[in-house]
Specification:
Blueprint lengths: L3 H23 L6 H29 L12 H5 L4
Helix pairs in contact: 1-2
Pfam families: DUF2630
Protein name: DUF2630 family protein
Organism: Kribbella hippodromi
C-alpha cells in the first residue's frame, strides 16, 4: 500500500524525469520515438498518481480508510476528459 508521502515522492521522481526529457527536447537533443513514448508514459503515470492522491483524500474526508484507494487503469484515468 502506498501512503501520501510515497506517492508524492514518486510524483517528484516522475516530474524530474519529465523535465529532463522536455529540456533535452527543447535544446534539440531529444525527441526520438523512444523518448516521446517515455514522455507519454510519464504523463499517464503522473495522472494515475494524482488520481490516487485524490481518492485517498476523498476517503479520508468521508471517514473511510485511505489505504483502500487503488490506482486506476490508464484507460480510466486518461478517459476522464473524454
Amino acid at each position: 500500500m502506498s501512503d501520501d508521502k510515497s506517492i508524492f515522492s514518486r510524483i517528484d521522481e516522475l516530474v524530474a524525469e519529465e523535465h529532463e526529457l522536455r529540456t533535452k527536447h527543447a535544446a534539440g537533443q531529444g525527441g526520438d520515438t523512444d523518448e516521446q513514448t517515455r514522455l507519454r508514459a510519464l504523463e499517464v503515470e503522473l495522472d494515475q498518481c494524482w488520481d490516487l492522491l485524490r481518492q485517498r483524500r476523498a476517503k479520508r474526508e468521508f471517514g473511510e480508510n485511505p489505504d483502500d484507494a487503488t490506482a486506476r487503469s490508464s484507460d480510466t484515468v486518461e478517459g476522464y476528459l473524454n
